[in-house]
Predict the structure.
Amino acid sequence: MSWRDDWRRVRAVAMKDLTAERRSKSGLNAVTFLGVLVLMLFGFALGPDTESLREAATGAIWLAILFSGVLAFNRSYQLELDGGALEPLLLYPGSRWSIFAGKLLANLAFVGLVELIVIPVALVLFHVSIPDAWAAQLFVTLLGTIGFVTLGTFYAAMSSRSRSREVLLPLLLFPMMIPVLLGAVEASTSLLEGNVMRDAGAWIRMLLVYDVVFLAAALAVFEFVIEV
Amino acid sequence: MSRAEGVAVPRREVRWTTVGLVGLLLLVAAQAYGVLTSPPDRDMGHLQKIMYVHVPAAWNAMLAFLLVALASLRYLWKGRLADDLLAASAAEVGMLLTGLTLALGMIWGKPTWGIWWTWEPRLTSTAVLFFMFVAYLILRTFVDDAERRAQWSAVVGLLGALNVPIVYMSVRWWRTLHQMQSSPMTLDSSYTWPLRANAVALMLLMAYAVAHRYRSALMTQTAEELMDRLALKGTPGGSRA
């Protein structure tokens, strides 16, 4: 019975965040625009050579998602902080991790929407054709996104309530993100090239392990970062 | 305030100074022994001697981060601010040792591999560890409330330390440029003893450094508490607003 209650709480938090986002829309527009902008900047920095653009495509996509995602995470607690609604939210009966899980789901949906726009744009800008292994590619993107959003949602719970939060979140998040970034970029690149030697499987396994470990850890210790 | 009670400056200063001195002497002796007795490596020549600091520094950095994890866990469990200060002290020393490991590795890598840096899992994950604990220490300066700082940094320290096994295993998981972990099994016996002695020496020095930082952090905290108490009483010290 309690499991069902927890799930209802998770869904309620997620729906609340998504509804607020849907009604304002300003967040999604700004974040997506930033993502596309980062892609353009990469294009300029790399120059017009088609081959080098294609090689750098996966890295550029992930960095664009990273930079635009960071904007989204602080926002996800901003609504509560501005309205003084965090304390009431914490006072509701039930487990604290459900707040984290709800925000995680909302952020996953949000970043997923951004990716839905940013990735096709990147494919066009960087002259990449849709790979044969597109299903595996989608899976890698999903794994990378889960790792990224888990850590982002978690660290934003701290950074959004501290001084100079704009600085703190990337400082905390980016070092922790390097394994995810590395795994996702390496796996996607080897899938794109159809190159067996680069061994996409090992990187996907690492992504899976990383996601499971840090999702479990974040759920377990979220209570400690939100209660003070 | 209840959490801050039980914080007292430990009277073990003499003992820790002895540990530090013994560590320093042993380090000098072990370095001299290693440099003078072990023959030049067949491939690397005397460049191999960097190993006597590089490897012990890496080992002890891991130990320091393990201490961060343990102290953080204990803080989350018991809520004593002293454990938070211990974790912070260990993180500082661990970060320094990781920095030393990276710097020496780069100095060794340039003549051996021909490059200062390569994006290889072992190197990358060590650099990640370094930046993670830099971020940990920056987080501490950004949060003013002591209890919140302790709680947050305990969590960040724990998640950071979760990366230590990933770093350690990275050489085994991916076949790469960096050699397997150096151990008595992989080394010629003439290198083992200097390496072990250096590791022990650096461990004593690390323990001394952590204890020293911890003690001064406790003293700072006690002083701040006294100031707060004075300010609450409205005695001079506090009334000058």
Notes: Residues 62 and 181 of chain A are 7 Å apart (CA to CA). DSSP finds eight helices and no strands in chain A. The radius of gyration of chain A is 18 Å. The mean pLDDT of chain A is 86.
